[in-house]
Amino acid sequence: MTGIATRADAERLDAGDPLGRFKDAFDLPDGVIYLDGNSLGPLPKATPARLEEVARREWGGDLIKSWDKHGWMDYANRLGDKIAGLIGAGDGEVVVADSTSVNLYKVLSAALRMRPGRTKIVSEIGNFPTDLYIAQGLTGADSGRELLMAEKAGIVPAIDGDTAVVSLTQVDYRTGEMHDMAAMTEAAHAAGAIMVWDLSHSAGAVPVGLNAANADMAVGCGYKYLNGGPGAPAFLFVAERHQNSFEQPLSGWIGHARPFDFLPDYEPADGVSRYLCGTPGIIAMAALEVGVDLMAEADMSAIRRKSIRLSELFIERVEATCGEYGLELISPRSPEIRGSQAGFTHSNGYPVMQALIERGVIGDFRAPDILRFGFTPLYLGFADVWDAVEILRDVLASGVWTGEKYSRRGMVT
Amino acid sequence: MTGIATRADAERLDAGDPLGRFKDAFDLPDGVIYLDGNSLGPLPKATPARLEEVARREWGGDLIKSWDKHGWMDYANRLGDKIAGLIGAGDGEVVVADSTSVNLYKVLSAALRMRPGRTKIVSEIGNFPTDLYIAQGLTGADSGRELLMAEKAGIVPAIDGDTAVVSLTQVDYRTGEMHDMAAMTEAAHAAGAIMVWDLSHSAGAVPVGLNAANADMAVGCGYKYLNGGPGAPAFLFVAERHQNSFEQPLSGWIGHARPFDFLPDYEPADGVSRYLCGTPGIIAMAALEVGVDLMAEADMSAIRRKSIRLSELFIERVEATCGEYGLELISPRSPEIRGSQAGFTHSNGYPVMQALIERGVIGDFRAPDILRFGFTPLYLGFADVWDAVEILRDVLASGVWTGEKYSRRGMVT
After folding, report:
1. In this structure, CATH architecture of domain A7-43+300-406
2. I need a surface site. Which of A173, A239, A279, A382 has the fewest CB within 10 A?
3. Average predicted confidence (pLDDT) for chain B
4. How close is the nearest chain A Cα to the Cα of B25, in Å?
5. Rounded Cα–Cα distance for residues A198 and A137 (Å)
6. Looking at A192-196, B202-206, B349-353, which range is the least confident one?
7. A41-45, B293-297, B346-350 — which is least confidently predicted?
8. Where are the alpha helices (H) located in B322-398, listed in sequence order?
9. Pairwise CA distance, residues A252 & A256, whole Å
């Protein structure tokens, strides 16, 4: 029980919220309650000016000299160090590059090479599809390797002496259910396997302790809770102890020890930089940095406390007011094992979500029947959550979503 | 002989230049003669406003709905079609994604799979290093494959029945020497090999006829002659005849036939879209599109005519006025086989280039001893080239570059 019984209670919490000041740092449209920051974080108000600066002053004004003058060459490392602070990693353990999918390919490839002779990647059947697809790309018919996709309860039993790598997303993209990072990492290590974590729904959402959990490698997304912009560059972690003992096949020139010597043979850079590949995308990194800086300013334990309270309020209100309309919670009831989101199934999930979005409450739909709502403490208040559930109940009660206009399936990412 | 004997001649040519109007579309700093657009193209004046629009109106204003509303989902294809028009490809044959290095990995992987049983990648010893490094990533010790790096004259003789793929950069990054795309492609095909072209120094610089040459696959860079911004997304071409017969291992969710069904098994999309991998970088693509649109407005044969005349003037003036200072042309004398750049060796190439840059003439240095100058007809005039050579001669004559301040090796990309 949250103890929030009226909208006035919610308003009082907002008034005393130590994170309340962050809301003004985001440019949210009027009339929108945005419960989809777990898919695409909103625009920080400072981002357009930073884009203008990187374009006009750096690129435009200093042209090619900017690679030195504005620190473009090690931008991927500097920004990586900032993200490291959000995920329990150290300086020099994180780098920003490419997409989450491409980075997964790099870390899975590296992990497979670190365990020669072992043939198995263990993952979860409900893992985010790209995690499975990338693993499939490395375990094709003629590879001599296999991808074993287990249900959650079957993961640990599936890890054995033939397992090269265990690859999991910490927070389930549909249900928000969280793995116990330390326990799972230990289980992988006990079998001699490398543990790879996808933090796409964790970074900026929940406290993450990569080094405390003794994790080996990780990847994650810049455009969800880090508010880095659509398709922002992703990040990649490798524990210091592995840094000069791994190889990966995307051996592009920026991961070379001396790229500007233009040598004909590849020689990997020291440390996490050997995970870099092509020329870094400076404009996209500039946008991502604004989001990361904002997140770094906030206290992650305060974020987690508020996130739990927002989610608890949402679930409590949905169950109290929408009980008769066939919504079924698929997220864990215990907030300790739930990320910063909640999912409900509904037999008409897609049109219900479309009708809800039309009323200004933006969540998203995930096939086949899931309504998904993200709770992002930096720009979401308790009264917002209260109002969102009121509108959800109105939509369900009115049956407006049964109309023709909501029945077509579009793309909601 | 260019027939340009005085600066007044050069000014007259500028006054009558049909491409002259494009100079005003770029934001070039005062006092700079920019001969490095072959490394990083300058800022189009329209780019900051487009960045503001994609950030504020699209991302900020429409949030997650932008994937549909602003066409973000197929941005990579739409922009690819625009680039196709610049490189002699058709609609649906080009897509924008990732970096040149990552795209090379995809096309080389695909080509190797299309020629099972063949073990050899043939490339050129002087190819751009990342092209070689990526090929090395696919031909490591335990791969059962090898990378054969030949001198230019040895490439065709090296292609045999064991060659899966021939991978070349059309325009040499140091000398500007161009391969005969049609003849080389024919030689590869005669041996049953797949031909992969890197167009990083071709796209927007010289007319490219991928389909006229019967090319199989190609990649290229967005931040050089296409003026897409530092680390802009790269592009990738696959001939229509191959489009449903190739596979590549970077099988991320955006290359899936139905990404939003969130299916556990990868199924490649039809056509060139199966080369997509992670979530597309929208902000970076928006910047690239401005540069591509500008290039598409200009006539490529007019660009080529002017590019040749600018390069001829530069070489002619250097040889007429700087002859005694030890500069050695390493670019082909015949403009027909020279891209839009010229290279000279000099025993003190690095400090000479630093001194030149300090005087406002921005070219670049390429190890071990090359001064490289790019000629970009959209924003460079004949008088600019005339003045650049005058300044080069002054620098060489004054010996200013022998001072201590120019002796340290920095990073010039």
Report:
1. Alpha-Beta Complex (3.90)
2. A239
3. 95
4. 12
5. 17
6. B349-353
7. B346-350
8. 349-358, 382-398
9. 7
Whether the CB of B133 is below 8 Å from some CB of chain A: the reply is: yes
Please tell me if residue B55 touches chain A, with a CB cutoff of 8 Å.
yes
Half-sphere exposure of B131 (CA within 13 A, CB side): 29
From the candidate CATH numbers 3.40.640.10, 3.40.50.410, 3.90.550.10, 3.40.50.920, the one assigned to the domain spanning A73-297: 3.40.640.10
Say how far apart CA A219 and CA A241 lie, in whole Å.
Answer: 17
**Interface residue of B266, B354, B372, B379 to substitute, partner A, most A CBs within 10 Å:** B266
A320-371 pLDDT, tens per residue?
999 899 999 999 999 999 999 999 999 999 999 999 999 999 999 988 899 9
CA distance A256 to chain B (A): 9
Q: What is the pLDDT of residue B399?
A: 83
Please check whether the two domains, A7-43+300-406 and A73-297, share a CATH topology: no
B231 interface with A at CB cutoff 8 Å? yes
B72–A contact, CB cutoff 8 A: yes
Distance CA A171, CA A343 (A): 12
Domain boundaries, chain B: 7-45+299-406, 73-297
Mean of pLDDT values over B34-54: 98
DSSP alpha helix (H) spans, B19-72? 47-52, 61-62, 66-69
Asked if B102 has any chain A CB less than 8 Å from its own CB, the reply is: yes
Q: Measured between alpha carbons, how far is residue B252 from residues A138, B218, B275 in Å? A: 12, 20, 9
Contact check, Cβ <8 Å, B231/A278? yes
Full 3-state SS string of B394-407? HHHHHCHHHCHHHC
Work out the angle at residue A331's Cα, subtended by the Cα atoms of residues A305 and A393, and round it to the nearest 5 degrees.
Answer: 90
Are A111 and A217 in contact by the 8 Å Cβ rule? The answer is yes
* pTM > 0.80: yes or no: yes
Strands lying side by side in the sheet with A120-124: A94-97, A234-238, A217-220, A194-198, A163-169, A120-124, A146-150
The per-residue pLDDT for A410 is 46
**Are β-strands B217-220 and B194-198 bridged in parallel, bridged antiparallel, or unpaired?**
parallel
Helix (H) or strand (E) run with residue A373 in it: strand A370-374
Q: Is B42 on the interface with A (CB under 8 A)?
A: yes
Residues in chain A with CB shorter than 8 Å from the CB of B284 are 231, 281, 283-284
pLDDT classification of B406: cutoffs 50, 70, 90? low
* pLDDT interval class at A400 (50, 70, 90): confident
B101: which chain A residues are within 8 Å (Cβ-Cβ)? 250, 252-254, 277-279
Q: Within a 10 A sphere around the Cβ of A402, how many other Cβ atoms?
A: 12
Interface test with B, best of A100, A279, A370, A380 (most B CBs within 10 A): A279
Mutate to test the interface with A, among B54, B200, B253 (most CBs of A within 10 A): B253
Q: Which residue in chain B has the smallest CA separation from A261? A: B367
* Per-residue pLDDT at A149: 97
Is B7-45+299-406 CATH 3.50.50.60? no
Checking if the pLDDT of B191 tops 60, the result is yes
The amino acid present at A44, given as its one-letter code, is P
Closest in B27, B133, B262 to A252, CB measured = B133
* Beta carbons of A63 and B36 less than 8 Å apart: yes
